[in-house]
Records
---
Amino acid sequence: MIHLLRRFAFYLLAAWVSLSLNFLIPRLAPGDPASALQLRFQGRLEPEALQAMKRAFGYVDAPLPEQYLSYLGGLCRGDLGISVSYFPARVTEVIADGLFWTLFLSGVSVLISFTLGSLLGAVLAFRRGSVADALLPPLLTFLGAFPYFWLAMLLLYVFGFSLDWLPVRHAYSDELEPGVSAAFVASALSHAFLPSLSIVLTSVGAWVLSMRNNLMATLSEDYVLLAVAKGLSPAKVLFRYAARSAILPSVTGFGMALGFVLSGSLLTEIVFSYPGQGFLLYQAVKNQDYALMQGLFLFITLAVLLANWLVDVAHVLLDPRLRR
Amino acid sequence: MSDLESRLSGGDEESPLLSIRNLSVDYVGRSAVRAVDDLSLDIRRGEIFGLLGESGSGKSTAILAALRLLPPPAVIVSGQVMFEGVDLLTLDEGALRRLRFRRIAVVLQSAMNALSPVLSIGEQITDVILAHEAASRGDAWARAGELLELVGIEAVRLRSYPHELSGGMRQRVGLAVALALRPALVVLDEPTTALDVVVERQILQRLAELSHARGFSILLVSHDVSSMLEFCDRLGVLYAGRVCEVAPRADLESGARHPYTRGLLDSLLSRHQAGTRLVGIPGAPPDIARPPSGCRFHPRCAFRVDLCEHTIPPLFAPAAGRALACHRPLQLVPPDVDASVPPRRTP
Amino acid sequence: MMLLRGIWDSRQARLGLALLALFAAVAALGPFLTRDPAAFLADPLLPPSAEFWLGTTRQGQDAFAQLIVGTRSSLGIGLLVGVLVMSIGSLVGLTAAYFGGLVDDVLSLIVGVFLILPGLPLAVLLAAFLEAGPLTIAAVLVLTGWAWNARVVRAQALALRRRDYVLAAIALGEHPLRIMLLEMLPNMTSIVFSSFIAATMHAIGAQVGLEFLGLGDVSQVTWGTNLFWAVTNQDILTESWWTILPTGLAIALFGFALAQVNYGVDEVTSPRLKVDRAYTALVGQRTGLRRLLTPVVLARSDADRERTSA
């Protein structure tokens, strides 16, 4: 319990840091962010609306601490400003749209990568010294060296364009309406396949190596030897004694991996024009839509923190040593 | 059985429970290192046998190898391990598994690491019961509770996790697990290394009591000479992978015949009156990768002759239940202990 | 010295070093040997031919020249970031492990926060607001990347902290910095090197990613900006794989080279691998739990009774 509370406090701290970064970074840019904002929206927004937005970002005519308070106020009200790229939509609306698809894509990809990678790593540790064990790790490392988006482009080109087996853009077919129908679900899955594949291919190597090394280390622990000495069946020894301990470090790394995948999936989404946060970020950068950029950063960060927190809870459930 | 054989095992009594012959174990690497060389010894039924030796003498290696529990890069290169009529070295996995813990149980060194941190104590005791016997879960848990009480832990602790227990308690749990199926032989590898003296005595005492009550044999592997002398019926002394001497406790106390054993016993504080000089064995244990020629102890032996440097002393049996590997064994009365003061005996 | 010797022994390491040398040569000399990558020389999107080894880009430039010239900047910045990340991370990690207590708590907290903030979004935000250019990108990447190295180094250093020679040095009154750099660090070469390689690879990938998004100096020729220009339209794909594929291959190849060298370092610092091989050679391959069953192999002298048991 104490452990969980400490972690929660940590996440609160990290959240505060990211809020503050969000506040500070625009002020690092050369020039005055307030007037830049003014320039962008002048003529397109009512003066009151423009003023409100400035307050939300803290661009008020006051010393820094007051600006900060103004900014926090805006956050509490849920005011992240108005998007340039999707004018006149509010940033919060724009992000909400993309959130689902990013969660879908990244979440599913991470789960597949973790499960597949851990299983494969376990097999390799088991068949230590075999041909597979000699070839797969370097191969997977090589695969992991490719930048996410490059692999995405490759897959897109080969399977999407050349072979025309799978769709090349968007999250679902343009002709369908979103809804819980078989056709829609099927379409969503087929559209998510290639992007997910590119993420899985580049990230699975890390899981394989992690599980492999952990399991090899666990197999040489005394309690595994004792389990064998007790005459337990190989299955029992492997799953009850070896695997349960070996998976723990992977669980710890899971949270971190979520952060990485979220970063990587941004670029993948861009390649596939997949309407998630990454795609939105791309648009924001292209259009110099700073409000959207900041909003996305904040949102993604908070999502990662939340996910990490959930992983911590799971970790405590799995490892009795943490329950105190 | 040859003459040596019958002598080693104590003669006309029933055949020994465990009989190791000519066991050699190598560690594979750039070049193979012989950790155990041509080891032979017997464990009789109902006895408490102590295998004594310094760190690196090969005692743990020998016993774990005999039980086929030695991890890579160890390889058994020769020998025979007869247990209840079968050679353990020729058994396949399935047969070995059926034997494990039902007939031979092991308590590993440092019980801290010998218990899985993510399973409760109860689960780790009941799973060995359930693996070998057709008992119900309820029965198994009940028995587990009894076992804990037997070794001096409250049954309520079944639900605890290893990290919630002290080192001594974990060692006792290891013992409880070992006794779960009422084996004929319990092997303990350095059972007391990480424990303090008081706890150590308690555990060994309990063990001896249980052995006498239930009739199982105990094989203790340790470097703690005084504890071994206190609790064991017979002791075997190992040096650099080879057997030096095997003898009943009484014989060793009144006079060890191998210079190394003599040196070990002499260096015990308890054997000397206040004011006498402390005696040790000069030199240091050899590097087993490059052992001395001939008798491995010869560089440190005050009684060596030329023969000792060239020829490995063969193991012979001067009497029933005894063994000795020395070209010039010592006389029976140790000269530097005051014969009028009887050696310290524990009740 | 023995370390270098050992690395040379490993076949993989030799391969890796050879590849790295190739990259270095290309980076150093390449720009002098190819055409001007910025010049508009021919029709756009020509496939590879004898004249243009990698064809031409969307703007009619020599794609091969772009790849070669881009090597210098991309690898240079990548290595710079790797070195900086390794240095800063190692210093922080060592300090935290050495001093322990409050220092460790504070530093670990800082490391933790930096570690958990997602790197790319933060990098994008920073790069978008600051002036475009390779040095900006380098600074941004160092800021978002140092924490991981710090954590890894700290973990390893903690283990070393209790070793005899460290305690002895402390007892002798040696200066903490001396102890950290001269006693502890040399015993961590393997892990420091591995994390340096990881940091460099990550930096190269992230750099290319940021530039691809248009956050670098698009007037310079780098791998990332090459990709940016190849893709400026909404329509990501055309038939011109030659403008995109080679870049990824180059990155992966570089990573592969580094990984091979890393493998060589591992072999030297952990002789276990050699022992493993000797063992497998003797008893054959034993999978899974069978490894825990001590094998019985009769010595060569008993050759006529060759019998390998279970």
Note: The two ends of chain C are 44 Å apart (CA to CA).
---
Amino acid sequence: MSQTTVDQVTEPGYTAARDRPPTGTTGPWGWARANLFSSWWSTAVTLLLGYLILRFAVSFVAWALINAVWTVPFSPQGVPNTAVCQNAKGIGACWAILPDKYRLILLGRYPYDQQWRPAICVVLFVTLYGISAMRQFWRKELVLIWIGTLGAVGVLMWGGVLGMPLVTEDQWGGLPITLILATFGLAAAFPLSVLVALGRRSTSLPAVKMLCVLYVELIRGVPLVAVLFMASVMFPLFMPDGVNIDKLLRAQVAFILFTGAYLAEVVRGGLQSLPKGQAEAADALGLSYWKKTGFIILPQALRMVIPPLVNTFIGSFKDTSLVLIIGLFDLLTMGTVALSDPPWQSFSTEVYLTLAVIYFVFCFAMSKYSRGLERELARAHRR
Amino acid sequence: MSQAVHNIPHMADTQAPPAIVLDKVNKWYGAMHVLRDVSLTIAEKERVVVCGPSGSGKSTMIRCINRLETHQEGHIIVDGTELTDDTRALDTIRREVGMVFQSFNLFPHLTILENCTLAPIWVRKMPKADAEELAMNFLTRVKIPEQAKKYPGQLSGGQQQRVAIARALCMRPKIMLFDEPTSALDPEMIKEVLDTMIQLAEDGMTMVCVTHEMGFARQVADRVVFMDRGEIVESGTPLRMFEDPQTDRLKLFLSQILRGH
Amino acid sequence: MQGFPAPDLHARTVGHNDEGGHALAMSGTTADPRLIAARAVPKKALRMSWSDPRFRAIFWQIVIVGIVALIVWYLIGNTNRNLAARHIATGFAFLGRVAGIPIGESLIQYNPAIDTFGRALVIGILNTLKVAVIGVVLATILGTLVGVGRLSSNWLLSKITAVYVETLRDIPLLLQLLFWYALLEALPAPRQALHIGSLIFLCNRGIRVPELVWESADTWALVAFLVGAAGTWLWNRYARQRQEATGRRPAVWPVALLLLIALPLAVWGLLGAPTAVELPVLHGFNFQGGGVISPEYFTLLLGLVLYTATYISEIVRSGIQAVSLGQWEAGGALGLGRGAVLRRIVLPQALRVIVPPMTSQYLNLTKNSSLAIYIGYQDVMSIANTTLNQTGQAIEGIAYIMAVYLTISLSISLFMNWYNARIALVER
């Protein structure tokens, strides 16, 4: 190989970076070209979608805002005169139903002068979610916070102490019922699910493992409607003579059993994702099964399952709407109750859209949080 | 300007037409200027090693040669065909140019043998039996014929990379591109891959190889090209480049590489 | 996830064997440990002592299973007493009684005056399957389109599909169903029905579409199509064999076109090409003739498809993203065209990621179809509920519901296990 070749040696300094040749790939026009009109196919999609969106937006704004009816006159007996709304039907929304019915929809048939109590409960629940979402509160004390808050909710809703008159469950309704079912359901299903998940992973207790598998697969195999239905039909048969469980408790038990089965699978996923070395290290230290599980395995596994746990909670929050079938008055049921008032009967779209916004705000906030957390945990895990 | 002559030290020796010509190639990612007036001519059977710090554009350049990336200015001519938007030209070039990736990119759902026969069957239209014979031939050359029925996940990194080389060779390419083939490997596996590449070089394959393996460069390369900040800073024989670096940037790079090893 | 523990277990047993072998080599007096004959693991006797882990395991299992059995026994006892007090006889004798419950739509003949509860419950299953099967097909198509749309380089398309997915996922399905049902009910009466070219009518009684009058020529055309499908399959096999032998693959699509479209058309044409179509006609206050899609069925189908498609789109999206860009590049660098890379390299890998969560979405859709009961579509739940109210046979009704849904779930699980096993074989 010859070594006397002429080498290429450019200037020791750096060649200055040049701007891209002016092909219009930068700036707003460049952005539009790259993202909206990059090919004839893309251009066609953009134009078609743009046209449809514009048309929909224009007619929606006209219906929801411009032509909407915001108030209607009431007779001295408090009966609304919805003639204006009837005339505007199909052209404009009738938002007048909301100021008339919002307390009924949100808080149900709770005694009117006592409605501050369920309202505070809603605030308590939202605060509880907020606190649980913050990482600095992920300590043992969080359990106490949950127990305290749920206890406070019980006291506020039932009353009978501290000068608050007793209000029985059949008068509860609206958003508090939705939040109670979902939150108490999660709180009770969580310990259950951890035990079931541990039982299902057990190698030394085959009979217990069988029971856990049977429970999880039976529940996951049937729809929630069927479970609720069973709860409402079978519980009266299960109870000894004279004992009667009210509807709310039946639904709550059904929710706990249902959520527990799904959560158990989530927790099992977390347990499976732990490297085997962790358990072996604990064994090598001579820790007993419960110490090993409580101090080494669960704290790590549960941290990993928080995002899917939040997703399960979102699911059960949406699923609370199904209690309509056993005659409980959750948020959605109260919406249909409000719509059964003859003057408002034909304005379901307005009510359903409002309810959709409420559900959406709760679920979207939670799923946004869970996705952010998932990314964060994945990053921490990789490190 | 006689830059082309400067660029091809062995042109006079080999008398062969150039296999690859890059002429003032420029490329941008968004507003970032990643290839700056890169000109390089590689003769047939020449072995070129491209080195440089990370982010210097060496991978981008090699990926432009078989158009995994598109350049925005300048010309790239491979085996007499200029790379343009024309897909027919692209098809011809990709058949003639084999590529080995840093992350192997074997197809995990196919056996080793199927990985190697896929392209000969579907691109070269070979009968299955012939393709398998060819593949076994090359797997024997990279010394892993006994793994043919296994899946990539069952092989070590070094074995996977040798399969990747065999897979590319099964297309009977005229030119082989290597994009940091040993960077993702554990130290004890680097040698087996380098040995395969040295054997390939001895067989007279035109090779362009992005690597930091200076021992390999010394042993095999006809020419070392040093890139930094998207441009070719210096090029020459391995001996001259390593013993007598002309630019401060190469000196700095070499000192960092040596310290790292 | 279910596939993972097995290799671990395997690894563990292998590890134990290694340790055993090692220990033998260390303690053995012979120079070559291989000469020692293999022995079975010695059986240790169970000690009746708290310090024996096996004794503890058995003790705890007896305690836990005992508690569960006690609870079950207590509940069964209560149930029997309650049933006796209410004078309800258990058993499935009621299945043979005349049902007398009206059923709006059914795939098989049903007359409430003469047909039995048994037949009514079968109709429930058929109605559930009708909405589930068609829902699964439509949701898969829509979900795939949306999933691909979200990955589109077109900003508007990817944003609009994202908004669709994010919104509908976060609103309860039941609320969506009630909303669509209210919208359909707000449609004009049959007399003022919206229509598309006087062929398809949209009114508050549902959707009316023209219906083909089925004749023997149509049957023969269908037979020809099936024959054509079989022929195409055979030709495809032949093409593969030819390719393996010679490297040249005979073109498949012209033959497929000929067999699947031209052949049935020719048969249909030779038999007189009957084109009789029954059109829906307004008659009094409602339409007569033509096919009808009831508002309940349409609402349920629409709601299920729109809701499930959001989940399917996410599965499809992550499936496509799971295949690294490197696979596309490696395929391209080998000279394969985009279509070939997609067909031979990317799809087989993406499907492996997509199929397991997809089947669980199919199961979800089927389970969610039980929301039919809220809008009055008569599926399994709804007919079981009516039957239960009429006969008081609560336990049997629940058993029927459980049996139907568990059978569907079990079938899907079995398919999943079969699929996972197949994948596992292909993988390693």
Note: Residues 117-150 of chain C form the longest helix (34 residues).
---
Amino acid sequence: MKSRTQYRKGCARTLVLKILSERPMYGYEIATTLAQRSENIFSLGQGTLYPLLYSLEKKGLICVCKEMKDKNSGRKRLYYKLTRKGEQSLGEDLATWSDIVKGMTLVLRVSYAKC
Amino acid sequence: MQNVERYIDRIIEIADLTRKDEKRVRSELESHMQELLNAGEKSGLTESEVMNMIEKEFGHPEELGKMIARARGKFRTYLKKEARKLPISIVVALVIAFAVQAVAFEAFKVTTDAVSPVVPKSSRVLVNKLASNFETNDVIVFRSGTRAMAGIIKEIDGDRNGVIVSRKNQEDTFVPRDKMIGKAFFLYSCSL
């Protein structure tokens, strides 16, 4: 379970960058989109979402692009978007990810084949 | 909604952010949880059920607070807070130091042998400016022209409102009360 949380934490960064590269979103929207698309595998990451957003913002990978009031509820929503630095970082993350998938598959396939 | 407020309060308390960050984080978390509450309502959950869900999903407020503190740079905000206070502290310290020096205590360095052996050459004396009872054999510091000098009281001269001061190898001199800076009450030698 612990390793699972650690894995998820590492992946969440890439996923958040990816989702924000499509269009600006606010916190709750990011959380629900992540949960939906990952079929709830990433739904438990809500607590870590805001710390993650803040640290990405501090690193300059994302920024708050607008603040909007929801017409129905009157609640303020902060929309985040990807910065240019964030786009670069996402590119690197995706390259790393495909390397990892390739490496993991190669190794795991061999060990599965052995047994 | 009260539970949510308390939950967020706890997070904010632990995160210990600057005021601006605090306001933003609070409003962001509040609106997120409100959305969760609304979504829960729609699917027929009670508030406490949603609250349980929130605590399960968001984790312990302490943990989340710590994570937010780290993400927004608690150390930096701490330093910022301290840095803002620093000039005030320095000014207050200087004001106090000068005030004390002006009215109560001031240190002088004795550069001559005039008061030895009671006060040897190049020792330091702390002068109590508030002293009012002078007696013979007290060591005092007094003004002579623009300089401050040390001497030993030989005699109290009440008639002229002052004292007769003796200094080694010099003639006794009269020092009026208003030229007397104060009584040297603490002595230490810095030349060993």
Note: The longest helix of chain B spans residues 74-103.
